[in-house]
From TrEMBL:
Organism listed in the record: Eretmocerus hayati
Domain of life where this protein originates: Eukaryota
Protein name, entry field: Uncharacterized protein
Amino acid sequence: MSRVLVRVLVAVLVLASTSLAGKSPSKRVSWVDVLDEDNWHRMLDGEWMVEFYAPWCPACKALEPIWESLAFQKKELGINVGKVDVTDATGLSGRFMVTALPTIYHVKDGVFRQYKSPRDKDSLVEFVSQKTWTKVEPVPSWKSPTSIQMSVVSQFFKMSQVLRGVHTKLMEDFGLPTWGSYLIFAIATIVVGAILGLLIVCVIDFIYPPKGPTYQAKKKSKVDSGGFMAEKQSADDDIVDSVKDDLVDEEVSESDKSDRNSKSSQPNSPNVRKRRARKAD
């Protein structure tokens, strides 16, 4: 009976060890919270350290055990530790303007700060425990992931991911060459642009309708009256010039008379001033 119990215990131990050995590393218990498009708002409450990574990134793979170790101490540090896969959450990578991998953010009650210190465990723990994050300038409001403009940017990133998927589907499922897929996108861009332009023109005409014929007639009458006034002003200027010429002629005549009286004894003198011809009215 004892031999049977020993054999049963040995068999159980063998099965347990086999199951543990064959267990996939990806299924091991993780202390890191996985964040995506649906639950990323969780990081707005409390204090978080969040990593943006990609499965193919070598630096991200090197940081993974350190990040797991930091998450193991999250209760002791009083924080939450999360990670975002940018290949699955493209909108979040655009919302946070992730341009390098891995990118780490510290979030405290909705205030975002980018972590740029060394990525070893001691530096990460010190950044949180010693509150070194207070010395880091927070992300400005216009660039905050919660702002409207960054929400729009995230939608553009999502759209780019959709277009990439369509491009891949056209080539792999339908067998189109690369230039054929690009041609379809170019035609679609032109058509969509024309439709949007037409809609914009219609909206502008609705908000600022064109002026009617009555307004044009009034404007023309104002122009005509303005032209008449200009012609009248020109005629008045001509009359004033004529009067000035008459005054000049009269002054010249008086001076000529005095010269003739003073030089009557010299009729043939070449210095006699001739009268200036009067302009015709």
